[in-house]
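task queued by scheduler; priority normal; single chain, no ligands, no partner chains; default sampling; output format set to structure tokens
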Amino acid sequence: MKLKMIKSFLDNFKCVHLFIEHFKNIHNFYIQDKLLDTAVITEETDLERLREMLVKYNSEKEAVSFVTEFQPMGILYVVITEFKNETLPVPSNLLDIVEYTLPKIGRNRIMALTEEAEYAYDYMEIEPKSTQHYVQYLEFLDSVTARVDEMDNELEYCKDLYDLIEEYQIAVSPDDTNAYFMFGDKLTSLHNLVDKLQAERYKIVEKFNDQISKDISALIEEVAGIRDEALQSWLVDAETNPELAQTTLAQLFDQLVECQ
């Protein structure tokens, strides 16, 4: 009878040991998750890596949630509530960080793209008034022409990001959602303006050339005025104050230098 009881105890403890073995996987990811630097999540921008994190932490959270807290085993009654309470918050916390990071990436990307698109649109809406402005305007138009294609790619990235957010039913503020859809409209407007200006580039260049001609005419007129002042007879008159003549000529020379 005594041997039978001992054998029964041993069998029950073997069952408990086998039962505990089922939690080895949970123990392993619990240790890994506890040691994880959360910057690995918050600084990640690759969507495939972020998707892998969502799959991983959702799976881990589910694995712990499905653990039965109370398990009778013959003469033994296993209670693992404390184990579950200790392990569940770890993958849950990491999942929360991923779900916070994804909308943040979208918000920051869309905000930066919107500001860039609005600045570019407003800048190109203003017609240049000076030769220097025309040079800057044409250079800016060329840079924006290349940039809008890059912005298309960045919008595609944001689309994939928000699709991922929707797939995993992650909360996003209405303001962020509206900003995302509004940026699409802003980028379309920018595309249309760039296409229009590039089609009318020859007109801009013609106005640029006209402005250069005006600047040259104004420069010639200004130089002629300086020459006339420099040839005034009083500057070489013997009775003229030498210091006054030198000061005047120096001022005229400075004006001439500014014309270069």
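post-processing summary
- Residues 209-259 form one domain.
- The chain has two domains: 1-204, 209-259.
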